[in-house]
Amino acid sequence: MHPSTTAALLEKRPLPGIEPLGPVMGAGVTGVDVARPLTASVSAQLMRALRDYRLLCFRDQLLSTDALQDFASAWGTPARSTLADRAGDELPLVDIVSNADERGRPNGRPIDPAALRWRTDGASCAGAVATTLLYGVETPSRGGDMLFRDAAAGCAVLPEDFPRAVEPLSPARTHVALLELATQDRFVYRHAWRRHDLLVWDNRTFYRATPYDTSRDVLTTYCMVVASDRLQ
User: For the chain, is the Cβ count within 10 Å smaller at the N or the C terminus?
Assistant: First the structure.
């Protein structure tokens, strides 16, 4: 088939559905198989949705590490993730995190405490906004939810006397006070994993994991971070 004909057929695909996941932030995306090439119109719509909602969820995606890298390239330039301290040998830009043993069974090892603390993968990478992609290869039957908070929205709810109240505090304690206010439950989106969920979020967003029974369930994720100037 002629390349121009293929491109024309791709552009005729229906645009994805975008539905809010709740009042705080986040949207679910339907009608997109992220393992297939994105059209320019679909890519533009997804970028707009990410700007608006800060987090997107693609359900029921079947992704290899290669396919995740291909999809990530639509969002920007791959960068090193801080979600894990190790990466696959063949694909160093994809962090693979799992509590499965060599037979695929849960190994019971404790969760890394750092994963349970509020964090970001960096508000920017070389001057561009960072975006994280996290794919649930295997997910727990209970627990292990991801929590997300829009940092910009948190600043918008600061009380008028907040600057005066924290003036006597050290910079570190001021940061803690700000984080405690911005990450109250009423400002947080909780994502309950389903197997083969793909989450994409803007890293002006705080996130953290929650505990699960590592002796009963397996949680295996692929993670990538990209830097993009399209989200400015």
Answer: N
